[in-house]
Design brief:
single chain, globular, alpha+beta, MPG, 195 residues, 17% helix, alkylbase DNA N-glycosylase activity, DNA repair, Putative 3-methyladenine DNA glycosylase, 3-methyladenine DNA Glycosylase, Chain A, 6 helices
Length: 195
Amino acid sequence: MNEASVPLSREFYARPALEVARDLLGRHVVRRIGEKALVGRIIEAEAYGGALDSASHASRGLTPRTAPMFGPPGHAYVYLIYGLHDMLNVVTGPEGEPSAVLLRAMTPVRGEAQMIAHRGGRRGRVLSDGPGKLAQAMNVSVSELNRHDLCLGERLWLAPGEPVPDARVTAGPRIGIDYAEPQDRDAPWRFIIAR
């Protein structure tokens, strides 16, 4: 059995978003489309802490859009931003206490040609160096994969990959949250593998 075929356990996700975001670095995103599997290594992730985090969608309460964040851990929370770009998040923490981690960037491991095709021929660093690009490269859409159970190992899941030592990780403020309160806007909740 290939390591990328084994999904991370529900227990992995049933922890605070900050812990999960850090621990997702080096893990694999796996997307099965028919007989093909696309695999990317997560290199950047952002934590969203829930109702008390003014940068989080959950801070506005339970709505049809945010409902997945309030559900069980280990599910996908996919939403559309600007009506154009799908964003892939993983739900974390205990059910009923909304939190999630946004997958911001990855590097291709397997299926790069298909990812390039999904991105309209874009290749190299711009292939998947942002959350919308990552979702497009992996063919992830809100209509197909929102609320998807990532622990089943079907269509979309996260796999063990290779964890990254602390010495190779940097943390900084999250991107694109100017609307958030200063303490949330400036919190170092974005984790990146240092180059």
